Each structure stands twice: as structure tokens, then as C-alpha cells.
Amino acid sequence: MSAGALETGPPRNKWRRRFLVTASIAGGALAIGAWRFYRERDRLTPPLGLRPGPNDAVLTAWLRIGTDGVVIVQVPRQEMGQGVTTALPMLVAEELDADPAQVRFEQAPIDPIYANSTLIGDGAPVRPDDRGKLAGMMRETQYKLGELLGVQATGGSTSVRDAWPKMRYAGATARAMLLHAAANKFGVPAAECVIEKGVVVHASSGKRAGFGELALDAAKLPLPRNAKPKDPARFTLLGKSLARLDIPAKTDGSAQFGLDVRVPGMLYAAIRQCPVFGGTLKSFDDTAIKARKGIQGVYALPATSMSAAALVVVADHYWPARTALAEVAIAWNEGNQAAHDTRDQRQRYRALLADGKAREYESVGDVDTALAAPANAVTADYFVPYLAHAAMEPINCTAVVRTGATCEVWVGSQAPTLVRRVAAKASAIDSEKVTVHTPYLGGGFGRRAEMDVVMQCVLLAKQIPHTPVQLIWSREEDIQHDVYRPMAASRFSAALDSSGNIVGWHNRIVGQSCTAGFTARLMPAAASDLLKDKTTCEGAFDLPYAMANRRVEHVLAHEPVPVGFWRSVGHSYNAFFTESFLDECAHAAGKDAVAYRLAMLGHAPRIAKVLELAAQKAGWDTPLPPGHGRGIALAQSFHSIVAQVAEVEMIGDAPKVRRIVCAVDCGFAVNPDTVVAQMESAIVFGLTAALHGEITLKNGRVEQSNFYSYDMVRLADTPVIEVHIVNSGIEHLGGIGEPGTPPVAPAVCNAIFAASGKRIRSLPIRLE
Amino acid sequence: MITLTVNGKTEDVDAEPDTPLLWVLRDHLNLTGTKFGCGVAACGACTVHLDGAAALACMMPLSACAQRKITTIEGLSSEGKPHRVQQAWIDHQVPQCGYCQSGMIMAAAALLAKKPNPSDELIAKKLTNICRCGTYPRVKKAMRALADAKEGSKPGVRS
Are residues A382 and A454 both part of a single domain? Predict the structure, then answer.
């Protein structure tokens, strides 16, 4: 241990360090020159991009109502399966007392008023239970920064939390306008009118008017400033399962994904990127294919900060482009990473675990004394590999550049405002003249926050002006040119007292920073290691358990493999590390894994309740057949609490996951069936990572390439999944897209230990 | 020029005979409901019906499809009503991102057409499509409901 080398300054220095962190983020924002001051802008005022049609009225920036009474809610987040195009409209429909059958959604235009400030607000490296002034200030600063940046992005399990005040307020405002319009029409006071399922009713006169009759008049009224959203006790729609609005189109082939975009005159492009990260194109020979029917051209794309060097073949259809590309002889300058090997990297991580320069994320009490005292010591090292996202829709983008005039882009993206900025940069056209269309995302998981394909497609479109072109990555390009979930290593030392209680906890994690990587790709000028990346240690520094002496620290690794945000980010590995190691401590203490955790959660009744519920519903104390085992894990992430109990059967040395019982507290489940669906989804996602997921490099190249070498859990291997929801109150509103993933791997591995006595300390799970 | 019968319509296609059916459907016939997922017959996103049986369009050369009846997700329903698999997918709220679901639904419909009451084991064996969103628990539920449904609501697979 090299604890002596750690910074242990007085609080004054802590202030200074934290100030520097915040300042560096703000500095980054200023450096890219994209920020504007939006705080004063009224979020209710419709942006320029939202214009009423001939038969509808725009009531605030968040909805249109047609003369047919249909309410069309503006959804400024992207649908990638998480149900956001239903949950957000529900917020507005509740306030309007609309009939759910009359509610539709459409993609909101790109405008800073729709910024996701919560996404950036969550980045502050403070514990979720830290209610102190400093933590509050850091959160507030980052939140304001989110507003300033105006990034309209979907991620971090933030959509409902960010929309909750804004869209309910907008709904309440529109409601007041409709009531006002009805009162004028009926000649009665507005206060005497009520809304029943999309119809304004004046009870004593029996007068009634549907939204469709009132919308045009309501839109002429000034925006009321004092509308109040409903008391949650009066909710009639929120909290009840509503059928998702996007599902019918996803059963008949009509839902349009990025790859389904068809623009008149569009060409198709196939791409091959330099197989070694950081390499460049040396030369190519396309004589064999140049004159072939359908081939329109062969283009080189330079490496940029956010995209790899590539060669592209453009043809009138995709297949000829793809087959021709395979026949082009390409030579690459592989650069200085051509020898990169995952096994070497693993050695480097081992060395960094021992003596790397660590930064402290949490330090409470006197860890060194606690660990030095004669006590039962438990120590272990853990490891996880790189993981690819492997969204089902291969990476793609469609663009057309009309020289010196406009640029139009179609892409399934988690960050349309970034798309616009990158397209403007690549095409050298003012961003005001860049139009971004956002079809459905065939899976996002963080991958579609990246701008690589947008940069490449617009650079290509610029070379063939006035011609729309759809750039399609093969699955192999997708697996081999992802931004990966970081490879990470973790070392624990715990001291247990004579009763088995943890009296000292030291955890050191080694890995790259997703946030630094993302920043470096998008705005290299702002890239800096100064920024303390919360994601590296989330799920480790912010553990809910009471431990008197604890220190959690991170050693930043610098490796050429790009890393990015992968469903649940740092929680995806830290939950595996900490919840597995905690199981080791419980075992060393001779304690039951549930009771052991509960004993450390006396101060956190919400969390304890979720843990107990999962255990109870799983029948934690009931006997299992021989060869079966149960494991439990708990993770608090994205402001939600999830506990899972896995039941595993060992068939020889092969673990078969039979059942996973999941309890979740996200504060308030807006659409409960979607919460269940997201837990199921996140569990299968985490199970794939635990059982199969591993990206390795040899000779600088990713060794996996398609589903036969990067396999997925399928229906046959899907356990029974049961989900139980705790509604603890709207003041605890949490995210739902990601929090189901972190507990899966540790719950399964703890179950394997219970069944077989074999402790899994490295993923994917491999038993002899 | 190769002549195909897709969703009951005759189509003349000007593409190389080795072009996979997937790209003919998507890029020549604008039937984009059939999806590209892997290109190597490993994920099932491109599942269509060829003479009523499930087939992976991404490795099926155009030349092998002449004279055969092709049904895609766009042609699964009839008389404006959803096919019962599509209805079950809506009833059980199966899709999430939805990208793999065309293939999943086509595989399910083909299985039920051949075997109206499949066991859980057979469903697991035949529905090997990858869904990265992990909709499998709901696919299982929807399939169980379809398999257990009484006669009279028999699958109406067109092929």
C-alpha cells in the first residue's frame, strides 16, 4: 500500500481541489465556444422550430393540440427502447387530464430550452446522500452548466427526472389556457370548469367543449405564469401502466430507424477503418473495382479526434459497395499502437494496483490504523475486461451537403445537439443551417452518444455535394471500432473485528476515464486529466454501507483503446467488485449475506427495505436442491436503488442462471410496466456481460468481430425474472434505464459461490 | 433481372444474382422492416418467410429466391388486422428499441404456423434471435399465450 503518498490535506485544500474541478468543467465549456446564456429564457415559449400546422395550436413549447382533439406532446429525448416517448407524454397528459387515447408524441425540435441539465448535473463527484452545502453547490453548478451548454441529450437515466418539473409545469400551463378558453366560450368563471378525459365541463350549465374545439382559442391567450402542477395525491394516470405509444409501429416494420432512412437520389457507402487505433491510411488500390457497375467512387476519410481513418466505397446500393470494399487492397500506417496486447495491459494494471498514483474519491476515518491493527484481514483483487455495446442496429448515418448552403443529417443519436455541432464543423457550414433528423435508435446504451459516424458521413457527403449518402458500418466495424466499457481492476483490503464487522475498508481501482475520453474526442482543447471523473469510482466511493474507516481511490490509466459510456458506466464494474468482495467479507465473518448488509444499513431505511424485499420475494431463507445456490447484490445508481437475488444451478462446471428476483425503488414509477421492462432489459444486458462479454486486443487489433465471437444471452439462457417495485415518493425520483444492470454480475457470482464454493473474481465467468 | 414474389406482389429486381435477399428487400424494394444485424446469419434480425418457413435473408442469395414466395414483416398482417403474433407482441408490450422485433416476430410466426402448440423447449430452440434490449421474458410470455390459445384463434400466417 502506498497510502503515505496520498494527498491528505486539510478541508481548505479540499475546497480548492473541488473548485478546480468545477472550474475545469466550466473552462472546458468556454473553450468549445458553444455555450450561450439561456437561463433567462422562458422554457414555455415555443421555439422557432415548433410551428402550428393549419389544424392545430401550439400551447407552450411542449405540446400541440389539433382541432381533432389530439394532443401531440413534444418529446426532446430519444427513444431507444426505454419508453421515453410514452413516459414523457404521460407527464403532460396527467396535468391536462387528457384521455390517454388522444395522446401522441413527436420528436421536439432541437432547441436549447429542451436541454438536459440533469445529465450534466449528475456528473458532480459527490455522494448521492451528501446533503452538505458544498455538495449542493457542486451539483447546482453542474446543473447550471448543463443549462448553459444546452445539450439536448438522452443518457444517464435522466429523462424522466429532468422532464418531471418542466413537462408537468408545461402541462399545467396548457391546462390553464384550455380552461380559460372554455370559460370565455361558456361565459362562466374558469374556476367553475373542470376537465374530464379531454373535455372541459361546466357542471351547473351542462356546457362541454373538447380540447379540439378550444385549442385555437387557447393558443391566442397569453401564457399564464402561475400554473401549478397537480398534487401527486390527485394523479390518475401517472403510476399506472400505460401501453407504450411506440410499440405498434415496432411490430409491423413501419418504425423508422436510422438505417431505414430513404432520401431521393441517395447513395450507399461501406466503410473500412484502420484496424489499429490511431493509425492512418497509407495507400489503397481500387483498380479492380473502380469501373464496376454501380460503383460511384472510393474516398479516404482522415482520422479526426472523434473518428478513425477510413476508406469508403460509395455505390448505388449497399451490397455492391460492401463487396467492392472487400476487394480494395488497403495499406495502413498502423502508428505506434500496433503491438498493443490486452495481456500486457493487464500486467500494467496489476502494477498500477500496487504502486500507481492514486486520487482519493472518498476518505473517512483512519483507514491505515484500522488496517494495521491486529484483526481479520480480507483481501482480494478483481478484474473486468473491455466490453462493446453491440447495439442491434449497426452504426450508420445519412447526410447531404449542399455546397456552401445547407447540411442535412439523419441519424439515430443520443445527442442531436452534438450532431448538429459536429456536422457544422465537418461541413464548414453554420450550425443554424444544419438540419438534424432523429429517427428511432436501434439500441443506444451509450454508444449512440458518440459522434464518429456523424463526422465520417458528413466528411464524405462534403466530397460528393448535393448527393445524399448513407454510411453503414458492418457489424465487424461496430465491434472493432467501438468506444468500450473500460477494462478495470480493483484491489480491496478490509479489516474485520472479532464480530466480523468491517472496521477498515480500502479500495483501489485502476482504469481509464470515460469522461476524459469523451471530452478528448469531442473537444480536444478541453481534454484534461485535472477533471476528476466521477464515473471511474461510482458504485465504489459512494457505497451506502456504514463503515467507520474507509478510503476509495482511483488510479487513472492511459491506454490507446477508446472508452465510452456503456449502460450504467462505472457502476457496471464497481458493483461487481464491491458486492462480490462484500460477500467475501460476509463469508469470512461467518454471517448471512443479507443480514451482514442490513447491519450496515441501519441509517438508510429506504435501501434496507429494497434489500429485504428482494430477499423475501426470492425466499432467501428457504432451502434449495443440491447444486443450487443463491446470491444477493445491491446497487444504488442514477438515484435509484436495486437489489437482486440470483439463483444458479451448477450443471457440472457450467452455471445455469435459473431465476433473478429484482426489487427496485426509483422513487415513483411513472409507467410501472416500463420500469419492469427496463429491469428485465438491464438484467439480460448485465447477464450477457457476466457470462460472455470480453473484448481483447492482440497486435493492436480487436480480436472479436461479430456475434460468433462476441456472443449474447438469448432466449434459451434467459432466467425467470421477477420485478418488485417500491414507490417511496416523488421526492426520491430516480432513473430506470441503467440501474438494473450493476447488481446482476455480483448476484450471479455470489450465487455460484454459494452453489459451488468457487469465487469468481474476473469476468466473464469462467469455471474450469 | 430476377422476378420475385414478395408479400403477394410480383417484383422485377435488377441486382446481381449473389446479392443477399436482405439488401434486395431493403434497398431495391424499399421494404425496410427486415433488418440488417450481423450479415453472417448469427442474429436473426433479417428473418423472413420463404415458402412459409423462416429464412435468414442476409445470407440468402437473390438467385435462390426466384420462384419462391417471400413474406416480410410488412406482409405478415392481412386485411388490415395485425397478425396474432403482432397482436400478442402489443398485448404483452414486448418491443423496446424494436430493431430486432421484425425478425423475432417472423421467427415466432413461422414456428407457430408449423407447430401451433410449441413447448417452452421448442420455443427456446427455435427463437434464437438476438435482442440486445433483452425482451426475452416478454417474448416467452407472448409465445406461451399464443401456444396455449384455443383453436379458432389459429395463426393466419400468409406465405
Answer: no
- CB proximity list for A80: less than 8 A, separation 6 or greater: A154, A412, A414, A440, A441, A442, A443, A444, A445, A448, B97
Closest-CA residue of B relative to A267 is B27
Backbone angles phi, psi at A397, to 5 degrees: -160, 145
Answer with the residue of higher pLDDT: A768 or A329: A329
Q: What is the CATH number for A732? A: 3.30.365.10
Rounded to a whole number, what is the distance in Å from the CA of B31 to chain A's nearest CA? 8
Domain contains A23? no
pLDDT > 90: what percent of chain A?
85
Q: Is the pLDDT of residue A609 over 90?
A: yes
The torsion region of residue A26 among left (phi > 0), alpha (psi -120 to 50) and beta comes to: alpha
Cross-chain residue pair B73–A253, CB shorter than 8 Å:
yes
A513: which 3 cell numbers? 476515464
Last residue of a domain, one of A249, A283, A317: A249
Say yes or no: B91 and B40 in one domain.
no
Q: B37 CA to chain A: closest CA distance, Å?
A: 6
Is pLDDT at A202 greater than 50 in this prediction? yes
A750's CB contacts (< 8 A; 6+ apart) are A579, A580, A583, A593, A631, A632, A633, A646
Task: Kindly state whether residues A591 and A448 are assigned to the same domain.
Answer: no
Q: Can you state the angle between helices B136-148 and B101-114, rounded to 10 degrees?
A: 30
3-class DSSP state for residue A752?
helix
Both B88 and B144 in one domain: the answer is yes
Domain count, chain A: 3
* Alpha-carbon distance B13 to nearest alpha carbon in chain A (angstroms): 13
Q: What domain count does chain B have?
A: 2
SS3 A270: strand
Range of the domain at B133: 84-148
Does residue A676 share a domain with residue A533?
A: yes
Same domain, A639 and A708: yes
Which CATH number is B25's domain given? 3.10.20.30
Residues sharing a CB contact under 8 Å with residue A736, sequence separation 6 or more, in sequence order: A82, A157, A160, A638, A640, A664, A666, A669, A674, A675, A678, A679
> In the A/B pair of chains, how many CB contacts fall below 8 A?
183
Does the residue A146 lie in any domain? Answer: no
Q: What is the pTM of this model?
A: 0.94
pLDDT in tens, A720-745: 999 999 999 999 999 999 999 999 99
pLDDT tens-digit readout, A165-194: 999 999 999 999 999 999 999 999 999 999
The backbone torsions φ and ψ at residue A354, rounded to the nearest 5 degrees and listed phi first, read -80, -45
Angle at A403 between CA A399 and CA A406, to 5 degrees: 60
Residue A442 to residue A603: CA distance in whole angstroms: 42
What is the distance between the alpha carbons of residues A325 and A406, in angstroms, rounded to a whole number?
29
CATH code assigned at B144: 1.10.150.120
- What confidence score (pLDDT) does residue A125 get? 84
Place B150 in a pLDDT band, splitting at 50, 70 and 90.
Answer: low
In a domain, A28, yes or no: no
Which residues, including other chains, have CB under 8 Å from residue B35's CB and lie 6 or more apart?
Answer: A257, A259, A392, A393, A442, B45, B46, B99, B100, B102, B103
Q: Which residues of B touch A706 (CB under 8 A)?
A: 38-40, 42
User: Between B40, B101, B125, which is nearest A716 by CB?
Assistant: B125
Domain range for A699 is: 342-387+483-756
Q: Where a domain ends, among A472, A497, A523?
A: A472
Query: How large a percentage of chain A has pLDDT more than 70?
Result: 94
- Interhelix angle B84-91/B136-148, nearest 10 degrees: 130
CA–CA distances in Å: residue A530 to residues A22, A125, A152, A767: 10, 13, 26, 40
Residue B139: its H or E element: helix B136-148
The least confident of A65-74, A293-302, A396-405, B144-153 is B144-153
